[in-house]
Specification:
There is one protein chain. With 160 residues, the protein is mainly α. Helix content is 86%, strand content 0%. The protein has five helices and no strands. The protein has helices spanning 2-24, 31-51, 56-88, 97-122, 126-159. Helix 1 crosses helix 3 (56-88) and helix 3 (56-88) packs antiparallel against helix 4 (97-122).
Length: 160
C-alpha cells in the first residue's frame, strides 16, 4: 500500500512541476542545470541503496525505472493538452486554424512516441519501445487523415 501511495505522490509532483512550467511559459529551473542535478541525485540514490546493502544492479535498475516513470509522467500533460486543444477549440480564429492545431498535436504526439522509445530502451522494455515505434510510424498517417477529413467535410459544408 505504501508503494502505491508513493507512486501517486511522485506522479502528482511531476505533474505539478510540468504544469507549473507550462503555465509560466518557461522553465522554472534551466534544463542545463536540472539534468545534471537529477543525474547526481540518481547516482547518490544508487550509492545510498548500495550502502544499505542492496545489490548494485538492483539499485541501478530501481533508480532507472523511477526516472523512466518520471519521464513518462511528464510527457502525459502535453499530450492530453494537445488532444483537448485539437477537439475543444472552434474555428473562431478562421477556418484554417484546425490545420495548425492538428500540426501541433502531431508534433507533440511524435515527440511523445520518441520518448516512449527512449524510455523503453532505458529500462530495457522492448514492448514499450515497440509500441513507441508503432506510434511513431503511424502518427503522420493519422494527422493526414484528420486533415483530409476536415478538408472534405468543409468542402461539403460549403456546397450545402
Amino acid at each position: 500500500m505504501l508503494v502505491e501511495i508513493s507512486v501517486v505522490v511522485y506522479m502528482l509532483v511531476v505533474f505539478g512541476f510540468v504544469a507549473w512550467n507550462i503555465k509560466k511559459g518557461s522553465f522554472l529551473i534551466d534544463p542545463s542545470i536540472l539534468v545534471p542535478v537529477l543525474i547526481f541525485i540518481g547516482a547518490l540514490a544508487v550509492a545510498l541503496l548500495a550502502f544499505m546493502g542492496i545489490d548494485f544492479g538492483i539499485a541501478t535498475t530501481t533508480i532507472m525505472k523511477i526516472g523512466a516513470a518520471g519521464i513518462l509522467f511528464s510527457g502525459t500533460i502535453p499530450m492530453v493538452a494537445a488532444g483537448i486543444g485539437l477537439l475543444r477549440f472552434g474555428d473562431e480564429y478562421g477556418i484554417n486554424i484546425f490545420y495548425a492545431r492538428n500540426h501541433i498535436g502531431g508534433v507533440v504526439d511524435c515527440v511523445a512516441s520518441l520518448v516512449m522509445i527512449f524510455v523503453g530502451l532505458l529500462i530495457v522494455r522492448l514492448d514499450l519501445a515497440a509500441v513507441g515505434f508503432f506510434f511513431f510510424m503511424l502518427l503522420p498517417f493519422t494527422s493526414n487523415a484528420l486533415a483530409n477529413s476536415y478538408y472534405y467535410s468543409y468542402q461539403r459544408r460549403i456546397k450545402q
